[in-house]
Amino acid sequence: MAVSTVEAVVATPREGKFNKNAARRVRVAGKIPAVVYGAGQDAVAVTVDPKVITKILHSESGHNTIFDLNIEGGKATKAMIVDWQNEPIKGKLLHIDLKRIAMDKLMRVSVPVQLIGVPVGVKSQGGIMEHVLREVEIECLPGDIPSHIDVDVTGVELHGVVRIADLPHSGSIKFLGEEDATVAHVTIIKEEAPAEVEAAPAEPEVAKKGKAETAEAPAADAKKK
């Protein structure tokens, strides 16, 4: 499950203007601007501690983590991170979007797929494993969101394919992608053909003729004299 054991996120409502200068002042003060929305309620502009948010993003369940959100002066709710922006050079958090979560309503999320084991097609048949679909979209209740989905690939032979249909299914989650979509396969290592050396282009016959005629011309003139 993606329900988190991390500390609750405390959010402070923001007031005044919401422009770039205001956001910069928030970050200088050691916080980051955020927006909370969802669950049929009005969106609220807040500030949060970037260290707590970073801890959540780096946890096993990552952005799918569901945590307690306490907005000062408001009611505590469950929430998750749905979007975030980083500073392009240093990678510092600049802004996040938080969504209120109703624990009794189905939701759609993407979760990573982890391949477990070494395929026989790689181990003894000279192939390579190519991981094609690294995330799959599922639908389930918030409390049933897995941090990742494991699939055992040890039995996959050369040219074998792992599809969404081969992932572990349960009654608590529903896969939304096509059942025959390729998640991973064992393929052959392609050898690059050696580059052919291009032969120098032959001199056109017309050019050769011209040279011969030019060379014989003085001899012909000498005979005439």
What would you note in describing this structure?
- The protein is α+β, with helices and mostly antiparallel strands and 225 residues long.
- Helices cover 18% and strands 36% of the residues.
- It has helices at residues 20-28, 50-57, 120-123, 205-224, and strands spanning 9-13, 32-38, 41-48, 67-71, 77-86, 93-100, 107-116, 127-131, 135-140, 149-152, 161-163, 173-175, 182-188.
- 20% of the residues are buried.
Summarize the structure.
This protein has 225 residues and is of the alpha+beta class.
What spatial form do the alpha-carbon principal axes imply? Answer: elongated
Beta-strand residue fraction: 35-45%
Task: Count the DSSP helices.
Answer: 4
Task: Give, in spatial order, the strands making up the sheet with the most strands.
Answer: 1-3-2-6-5-4
Mean pLDDT comes to 85
Q: Tally the beta strands.
A: 13
How would you classify the helix and strand content by structural class? alpha+beta
Q: Helix content range of the residues, please?
A: 10-25%
Task: Please outline the helices and strands.
Blueprint: E1 9-13, H1 20-28, E2 32-38, E3 41-48, H2 50-57, E4 67-71, E5 77-86, E6 93-100, E7 107-116, H3 120-123, E8 127-131, E9 135-140, E10 149-152, E11 161-163, E12 173-175, E13 182-188, H4 205-224
Parallel strand pairs: 1-4, 2-6, 7-10
Antiparallel strand pairs: 1-3, 2-3, 4-5, 5-6, 7-9, 8-13, 9-12, 11-13
